[in-house]
Amino acid sequence: MMRSRGTRHALLVTVLVVLAHFGAYTYVTPFLERVTHVPPGLITVFLLTYGAAGILGNFLAGTALARHPHATFGAAGGLIAFATLALPLLGRWDVGAIALLVLWGVGYGAVPVCSQAWFARAAPHAPEAASVLFTASFQATLSTGALVGGAVMDRTSPSTIMTLGGATAVVMVVAVVSGRPRRSASAAGPGGGRRPGRPPAR
Questions:
Q1: Do residues 31 and 82 make contact, with C-beta atoms less than 8 angstroms apart?
Q2: Whose CA is closest to 58, among 102, 109, 118, 101?
Q3: In this structure, are residues 2 and 8 in contact, taking their beta carbons and an 8 Å threshold?
Q4: Among 5, 19, 201, 202, which lies 20 to 30 A Cα-Cα from 182?
């Protein structure tokens, strides 16, 4: 199964986006406390808003994925990248932080359904194996993301965590775009691709 280019590509983009998300989101509460200065009683409201946006993202991805699998996954990673990179700048204010959390929630809400669909498309002959690989890659990477984020957090700041998460999400978007299959040009007919006309009259 891992010999398939599609499977390897699905694994790469999944690892990158899950690493970006959990490396940053695990420490979003310290960010809200130290940078946005959200009162402890309101942090739950911010996180609930993020969660509601995630449900919306999951629904939107489900409707768009069948026709635009690469664009949908790329857009999900792009929303995560934009939100996490912008948080250190715009997340100092409540309105900016909550707006970016909504974008982040929509983006990440689309990730599981996109990733699972990519694995399934890459291995249509082995759906069970594709599902196992999807689950295993998700679980391993989310733990790694939280661990790496914790190591960075101990040495830097919540804003740095967000920036690094955003940079990783940018790499994921680049991987999605670079791996997008190109449409083959239509076969040109004789005569330099012009439509064949009637033979000249003699």
A1: no
A2: 109
A3: yes
A4: 19
Contact between 106 and 43 (Cβ < 8 Å): no
Do 123 and 11 meet the contact criterion of CB atoms below 8 Å apart?
no
User: Which residue has 């990440």 as its token pair?
Assistant: 108
Residue 31: which residues within 8 A CB-CB, separation 6 or more? 87, 91, 158, 159, 161, 162
Quote the CA–CA distance of 88 and 113 in Å, as a whole number.
28
**Dihedral (CA of 35, 37, 38, 43) sign:** positive
- Residue given tokens 């409540």 in the structure block: 94
One pLDDT digit (tens) per residue for the chain, 202 residues: 556 777 888 899 999 999 999 999 999 999 999 999 999 999 999 999 999 999 999 999 999 998 999 999 999 999 999 999 999 999 999 999 999 999 999 999 999 999 999 988 887 787 788 788 888 888 888 888 889 888 988 899 999 999 999 999 999 999 999 877 665 444 344 444 444 444 444 4
